[in-house]
């Protein structure tokens, strides 16, 4: 009766482990509630977890090997994703090339939302897809560790990654209840496993848990490393804006929320949903809100902040004048309320004189005209005293003098195509002053007869130079390309120029101007001695959001200034509200995408096709290998090899094909996320090579035992010695077979069943030496199984011993036991 109770307890533990592992994953996923709004996403996560757990239970009942179960769970998860988030699946459910391409597009949209949203981000369809993929992969890793590898404690590392991602993104601490739920579920998982191990140790359970061999340990270890690497890789991709490198230093590169500090000449702009960023009060004229300025031009890469750090003073209080600023002009007091803005940059208007209600973490760099912080911060409402008035055109024409206040980097135009430089010289050849030169370049882009058109899509490249393509061939693009082209052309004719990134005027709402992500914009600023940096926006916007300064708006076709140009006002047309249909400028999340943005928006077809093909081949070869192993009489829940299995070329081809196809699939899967992960993956595969060698040797010996040939007894004995070495006990070569057997029984605490099997193996070895018949006892395979199962129950292998078996890493020449 007691034995039945113990068996029932063990069966309960084995049955409950997948369910509790899924519960632990689901509870850990609740930590994402701090960065994702709503609760519907959690339902999708629950579906993914149940599908993974259910698929694992179903496949293990058919006694398939652990690698096949692992791939089957991934395939089941993929089928659910295809069904829920695409409409192009084969028979609705199965993932085909088009469905995978559509799924990549949805994930790209989700990543864009992650990079630009403010926690908690909206519970959009794309976000649910991303979370379902991420937690689904975590569920596969946890299920493999807890069930197949029988190492639920190691799954805690994977679950910890789930907590680490929202903890690194949220400004506040995670809710206490999410931690409690995750901790309780993980403790329950350990308790269930402890009950199972206790029953096995006492010898009251049935056979050893299936699937806990080196193959399972290899897959489990791979799942841990992939989960840790993925968690480390995804953590910097978040809703908190950050400077490049996710560190404390300021430099060029890709940023987080808000404005990307690098603009590119090429790319396709993906428009996202409109999100409010600022509310501005007190602005009496339309003006650009400047977040940052970019100084350095890199051919075919775009504009960057520059390698050196900004040099700034505390932004609170009175501010120093910028280069060329005489200090004159009427001040305007503007109140700016950040709504969804969390970044390293604090946008300002015009020529700021004073900023109030900002802390000491913000600094003002007069040379660059921007307010910044070394860390992304959410600022409160701040007041800005600034000068918005601009000089008339005639004053700018007469602006002559030294430009010594300007850094020489603003003149740099290296790498510009000679044909582009020649065009700039031709356009400005008739101009006698810097202002007319700038106006000539400006009109070249804004005059409709020259063929330039604003669009969020760029034409295909026809040369290796992106600037040349835009100016001469494509002539279509968005604000970044127009600003980049005019700025570098201005430099090529000797004018100091830079690219500014910020926002257009927005649209009126009640008593304030609302600025959203759709108002993000890029323009050109050119330096004039005595006046500083003047705005020139060459982007031919057609929706009325562009701001035309009076020194440009007042010009007639002959270059003469009209009466209206002396006014210190700014000309603009009616601004379109976000709900209206119009062409919009660059959303913050898409600024600076360039070629990388084009690669994301256009699904990587060759990646998808290759991945699909590799996965299909891997699954087919794994199934073939499983069938061959089943034909040999091996199942994951039994150690017996009852019948001779396939030998020779067929077995070798099946094993090698299955391993190679699975490795190729994993490499492509990881490379689809990031190619830099391939090297660690290859190293990881090499790290698990000893376990693969040990499994290959074990199968060869057990196959020889099952064949009951002349070498069956020797193979049985060598396998038992290898099992002993893996557990840390090496039998001296000088001991006789009987003395060695007693050592095995004593060191590994064999129970009665194991000792009986060991005696049978010793007898078979001795008969093989002395018997005239030389045939093996038909009971030998059963005896070997009994000894190995007794070792597993009473001296279970640690995870490290499974992955790095001593019999492979520290081998000694095989020596037959003494016959004395």
UniProtKB/TrEMBL annotation:
Keywords from the UniProt entry: Membrane, Transmembrane, Transmembrane helix
Region called Disordered, residue ranges: 546-597
Record keyword Hydrolase present: no
Key word Transmembrane present: yes
Domain Transglutaminase-like: 471-540
Comp. bias regions, Low complexity: 564-589
Membrane spanning stretches: 12-32, 38-59, 71-94, 125-142, 174-192, 213-234, 609-629, 649-669, 675-693
Full protein name: Transglutaminase-like domain-containing protein
Native source species: Saccharothrix coeruleofusca
């Amino acid at each position: 009766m007691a034995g039945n109770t113990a068996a029932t307890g063990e069966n309960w533990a084995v049955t409950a482990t997948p369910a509790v592992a899924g519960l632990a994953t689901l509870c850990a996923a609740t930590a994402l509630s701090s960065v994702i709004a709503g609760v519907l996403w959690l339902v999708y996560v629950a579906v993914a977890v149940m599908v993974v757990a259910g698929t694992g239970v179903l496949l293990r009942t058919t006694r398939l090997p652990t690698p096949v179960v692992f791939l089957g769970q991934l395939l089941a998860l993929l089928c659910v994703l295809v069904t829920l988030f695409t409409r192009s699946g084969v028979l609705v459910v199965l993932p085909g090339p088009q469905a995978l391409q559509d799924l990549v597009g949805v994930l790209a949209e989700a990543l864009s939302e992650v990079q630009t949203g403010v926690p908690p981000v909206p519970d959009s369809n794309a976000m649910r897809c991303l979370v379902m993929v991420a937690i689904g992969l975590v569920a596969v890793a946890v299920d493999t560790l807890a069930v197949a590898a029988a190492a639920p404690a190691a799954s805690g590392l994977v679950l910890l990654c789930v907590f680490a991602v929202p903890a690194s993104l949220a400004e506040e601490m995670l809710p206490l209840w999410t931690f409690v739920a995750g901790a309780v579920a993980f403790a329950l998982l350990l308790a269930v496993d402890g009950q199972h191990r206790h029953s096995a140790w006492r010898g009251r359970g049935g056979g050893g848990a299936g699937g806990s061999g080196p193959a399972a340990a290899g897959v489990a270890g791979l799942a841990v490393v992939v989960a840790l690497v993925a968690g480390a890789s995804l953590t910097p991709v978040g809703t908190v804006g950050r400077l490049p490198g996710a560190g404390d230093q300021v430099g060029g590169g890709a940023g987080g929320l808000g404005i990307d500090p690098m603009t590119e000449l090429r790319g396709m702009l993906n428009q996202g949903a409109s999100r409010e960023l600022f509310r501005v009060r007190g602005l009496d004229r339309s003006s650009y809100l400047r977040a940052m300025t970019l100084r350095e031009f890199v051919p075919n890469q775009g504009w960057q902040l520059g390698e050196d750090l900004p040099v700034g003073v505390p932004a609170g209080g009175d501010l120093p004048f910028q280069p060329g600023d005489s200090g004159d002009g009427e001040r305007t007091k503007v109140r700016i309320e950040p709504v969804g803005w969390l970044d390293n940059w604090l946008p300002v208007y015009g020529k700021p004189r004073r900023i109030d209600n900002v802390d000491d973490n913000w600094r003002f760099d007069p040379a660059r005209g921007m307010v910044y912080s070394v860390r992304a911060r959410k600022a409160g409402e701040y007041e800005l005293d600034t000068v918005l008035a601009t000089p008339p055109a005639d004053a700018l024409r007469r602006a002559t003098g030294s430009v010594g206040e300007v850094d020489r980097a603003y003149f740099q135009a290296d790498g510009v195509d000679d044909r582009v430089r020649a065009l700039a010289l031709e356009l400005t050849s008739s101009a006698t002053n810097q202002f007319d030169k700038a106006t000539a370049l400006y009109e070249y882009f804004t005059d409709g007869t020259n063929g330039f058109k604003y669009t969020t899509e760029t034409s295909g490249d026809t040369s290796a130079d992106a600037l040349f393509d835009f100016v001469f061939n494509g002539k279509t693009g968005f604000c970044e390309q127009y600003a980049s082209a005019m700025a570098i052309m201005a430099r090529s004719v000797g004018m100091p120029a830079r690219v500014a990134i910020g926002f257009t005027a927005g649209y009126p709402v009640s008593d304030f101007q609302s600025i959203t992500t759709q108002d993000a914009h890029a323009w050109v600023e050119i330096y004039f001695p005595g006046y500083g940096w003047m705005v020139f926006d060459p982007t031919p916007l057609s929706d009325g959001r562009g701001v035309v300064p009076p020194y440009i708006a007042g010009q007639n076709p002959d270059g003469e200034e009209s009466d209206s140009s002396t006014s210190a006002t700014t000309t603009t047309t009616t601004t379109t509200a976000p709900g209206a249909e119009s062409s919009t400028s660059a959303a913050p999340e898409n600024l600076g995408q360039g070629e990388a943005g084009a690669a994301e928006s256009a699904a990587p077809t060759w990646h998808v096709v290759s991945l699909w093909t590799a996965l299909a081949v891997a699954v087919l070869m794994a199934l073939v290998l499983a069938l061959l192993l089943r034909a040999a009489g091996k199942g994951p829940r039994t150690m017996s090899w009852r019948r001779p299995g396939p030998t020779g070329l067929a077995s070798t081809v099946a094993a090698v094909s299955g391993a190679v196809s699975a490795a190729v699939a994993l490499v492509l899967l990881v490379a689809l996320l990031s190619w830099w992960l391939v090297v660690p993956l290859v190293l990881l595969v090499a790290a698990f090579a000893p376990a693969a060698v040990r499994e290959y040797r074990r199968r060869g010996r057990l196959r020889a035992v099952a064949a009951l040939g002349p070498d069956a007894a020797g193979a049985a004995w060598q396998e038992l010695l290898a099992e002993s070495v893996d557990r840390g006990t090496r039998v001296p070569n000088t001991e006789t077979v009987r003395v060695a057997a007693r050592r095995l029984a004593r060191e590994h605490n064999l129970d009665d069943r194991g000792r009986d099997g060991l005696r049978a193996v010793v007898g078979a070895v001795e008969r093989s030496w002395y018997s005239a018949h030389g045939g093996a006892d038909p009971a030998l395979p059963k005896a070997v199984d009994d000894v190995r199962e007794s070792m597993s129950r009473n001296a279970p292998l640690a995870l490290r011993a499974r992955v790095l078996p001593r019999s492979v890493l520290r081998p000694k020449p095989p020596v037959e036991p003494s016959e004395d």
